[in-house]
Structures are given as C-alpha cells and as structure tokens.
Amino acid sequence: MNAIFAAHRRSLLWTVMRIVRDPSIAEDLAQETYLRARKAVENGRVEHIEGFLHQTARNLALDHLRRRKTRAGAEVEGLDEAFLAAVSADIPSIEQALIERQTLGVFQQALTTLPKRAQAVLLLSRIEEWSNLRIAEHLGISERTVFNDLKLAMAHCRDAIARLDGK
Fold first, then answer.
1. Cα gap 122→108, rounded to integer Å
2. Which of 17, 28, 76, 152 has minimal CB crowding within 10 Å?
3. Which residues form the RNA polymerase sigma factor 70 region 4 type domain (predicted)?
C-alpha cells in the first residue's frame, strides 16, 4: 500500500490542489486519502487501488470545499464578546456524563456475560471494524457463524441497556 501511495502521491496532490487551491490543505487531504485507502484495503473492500485513491482524494477535496462554504455562510463577523460568552459549550452536562458512564458500565457487564467467541466477534466487528469474512478467517469459523454471533451479542447488549432505560 505504501509503495502504491508513494507512486501516486504527486498525482493525488495535484488533483486535490486543483480543487482546494491550498498546498497545506492538499497535503492534509492526501494523507487522509492514504489513511482511508489503507483502512479499506485492510477490510478487503478495494479492487482497483489506484482508482480508489484518486476518487477518494477528489471526494475529500470536494467535501472540504462544501464544509468551507457552509462555514463561511454560518460565520458572522463582528459578534461581541458578551454574545459569544453566552453561547453554551458543546460538552455534556454532569447528568448526561453520569448517564453515559452508567450505560457504558451496563454494556461492559453485558459483554462479559457473553460467550468468549461472541465477545471477540463483537469487538472485532464494531471496534476494530473488521469484515465478517476477516473475522471468520481469524477465528476459524464460518461467516454465517460470525453473523449469528454478532446478532446475538448486539441483541444481548441492546436488551441490557434497554432494561437500564426501563424500556
């Protein structure tokens, strides 16, 4: 993957540069392209890496332009300090943090009551973002077993959290 990216790096930079017209942003987006491509290759979802690299770079550049345009429309010049101080912070309240901590504890407890294989399947799928095929090969089981274990684990954890919420 590194060699392919290195071979196409200059072309990717120029593709992005033509869109964003800023060398440092182009460099950042090229690096993000590499990270996304590497993750996609690890998950086995890429057939033509060169095309994937260029399409990902182009999409990231266009997304950047959209975000910049949206931000420019939302930002207002000349806001006074009093107004800015009155805007609430984007952090959870103490109550929300306690609820989330309690929910996490219930989730962790539910996870520990699952069979070891179901725990592994859930963690590899949802945390490590592995494909079912990769999990099956890693654990030496069928994809269908991975699917069933994942379904069991998700339902078990969801039910435990629902009991906490009183649903």
1. 12
2. 76
3. 107-157
